[in-house]
UniProtKB/TrEMBL annotation:
<protein>
    <submittedName>
        <fullName>Peptide chain release factor H</fullName>
    </submittedName>
</protein>
<dbReference type="InterPro" id="IPR017509">
    <property type="entry name" value="PrfH"/>
</dbReference>
<dbReference type="InterPro" id="IPR000352">
    <property type="entry name" value="Pep_chain_release_fac_I"/>
</dbReference>
<comment type="similarity">
    <text>Belongs to the prokaryotic/mitochondrial release factor family.</text>
</comment>
<dbReference type="InterPro" id="IPR045853">
    <property type="entry name" value="Pep_chain_release_fac_I_sf"/>
</dbReference>
<dbReference type="Pfam" id="PF00472">
    <property type="entry name" value="RF-1"/>
</dbReference>
<feature type="domain" description="Prokaryotic-type class I peptide chain release factors">
    <location>
        <begin position="118"/>
        <end position="134"/>
    </location>
</feature>
Amino acid sequence: MEKLIQITSGRGPLECQWVVARVLKTFLEEAKQNTIEYEIIHRENGDENLTLKSVTVLLTGKDLTPFLKNWLGSVCWIGKSTFRKQHKRSNWFIGIFELENVKMIDFNEKDIRFQTARSQGSGGQNVNKVNTAVRATHIPTKETVFVQDSRSQLENKKLSISRLKEKVTAVYIQQLERKLKETWALHMQVERGNPVRTFSGTDFKKNYEDKTFKKQRNALKNDLKNYKNDLN
């Protein structure tokens, strides 16, 4: 099972872009814990470092429904702005949606047709008399590359596969970007007041855990103090 998931700040401000980046990290950590494979297909960087306007993730797993049930919808972060200290707002919302009806391009080397030709130099002169150049065509998409970098036909064939895959992937990304524009309305449908997940604090954890051991040290000091008093 595969699903495309988009995490977006919508039209939200810089704070929401920061939340997208933090949610992405938590989202991927939980996916890994649930033995779900993921691949980041597309991302749009935010206006500041370590922020994201949106990111699209491809999830692969046996049953993604239980995992996504706890994520799809709006996500709320409760906290003071890390960019505008005096800002009064403390609730920031982002959206997580499933992108449906987006056809994935399955790149398979079996779908490539190879043709050989003589490498050509400037002015149409033959670089050599052997057919070392390779033209590779991806039959499903009809995308084509021509490679003559090496005097070895085998090396040119390897390069043609790599470059053709990049070209086909680029076409897919363009299609995906068009789909994202078509679904931009989703960005405006981020529900406020009914989030599926809520986080708080800059540590972005549901339950804050004191890792400084300050409380434990103070407790030990008090125990020792009481022990000395008991001896006296």
